[in-house]
Amino acid sequence: MSSITPLVRPNIAALAPYSTARDEYDGPIGVFLDANESPYGSGYNRYPDPHQAALKARIGGLKGIPTENLFLGNGSDEAIDLVFRIFCVPGQDNAVIIAPSYGMYGVAAATNDVAVHPVRLEADFSLDTEKLLGACNAQTKLVFLCSPNNPSGNAFPRAQLLEICDRFRGVVVVDEAYADFSGQGSLVPEALVRENLVVLQTLSKAHAMAGLRIGMAIASTEIIRLMSRVKYPYNLSRAAMEQALLLLDHRIDEEVVTLVRERERLAAALPAFPFIRQVFPSDANFLLVRVDDADALYAWLLDQGIIVRNRSHVPGCESCLRMTVGLPAENDALLNALENYPI
Ligand SMILES: *Cc1c(COP(=O)(O)O)cnc(C)c1O
Predict the structure, then answer these.
(1) Ligand 1: which of 72, 77, 182, 283 to mutate, most ligand atoms within 8 Å of CB?
(2) Closest Cα to atom 12, ligand 1: which residue?
(3) Sign of CA dihedral 245, 199, 142, 312
(4) In this structure, which residue's CA is closest to atom 14 in ligand 1?
(5) What does the pLDDT average to over 107-129?
(6) CA 208/CA 52 separation, integer angstroms
(7) Cys-Cys with 114: which of 109, 123, 301, 341 at CB 3.0–4.6 Å?
(8) Within 13 Å of residue 34, how many CA atoms lie on the same side as its CB?
(9) Could you tell me the pTM of the whole model?
């Protein structure tokens, strides 16, 4: 029994997982009459591997993660929903999140009838550890941290994240969707040796596979076992897994270097515009930019065929637009549209 065992919802701890058709036997079989599939080969007539062995081995090998510490989900959004379902009793337990941050934490909490206590980041989007821990009570099962944070772009210091893991007696989820773009490094090695840390990563951003919907959770074997038990048996499709295996042969290192260089080029160029008040430092593949009139600038860019994310109505992001870093030519188009902005 680990320190997180008592945090698990009793109904989940007692759950007998759905046993899939092919779980009971893995010897050589040529005739499959067990799962009511069509026998006509379409390429997809057979159910996919519910244990995702091939893709887990590939991703685990790439990232240095033992497969028993790796969960694969239908996007990291599935992993976010699962941790609520595993640890939070609806109508009773709560989660502490930072604000502003990724909207899915609040949506997953609400669909599970779990209260969230948001802790506002400081004006520069840094995090006050005492304020965060002070928002936790006896019913707080989860703390969600996003680093680099969406939409602010900053990564929190590694020592601060680890201090929160040390001092909070529940489960800390660190969402590293943008870690590939950050100089801060990843907490994955820590998630392999700590009982209460779940790190989320995704193939949706730097790996250029948002359309396939594949996210990862890295955690203790106990937490990974729970997630695997609660997930839908066939949560990743055969098509998505096959395509991901092909696309993972493509190295992303150069693309990441280009995007980081382009991010810094934009960060250097944007402050020259008189209507741009502040460009926040970013460890991600986007920039949060404070402008004079966010709604007007957003409408102008739309008019020029360029869509950015208007975050100006999010508390803490007043007058801010979030701009994703694109291809060099796309970033030129953005700068060009800004040049032509009729103030
Ligand atoms: C984009 C993003 C994700 C990725 O979600 P997927 O479901 O894996 O596509 C996760 N967390 C944050 C903070 C994000 O911005």
Answers:
(1) 77
(2) 177
(3) negative
(4) 177
(5) 98
(6) 20
(7) 109
(8) 12
(9) 0.97
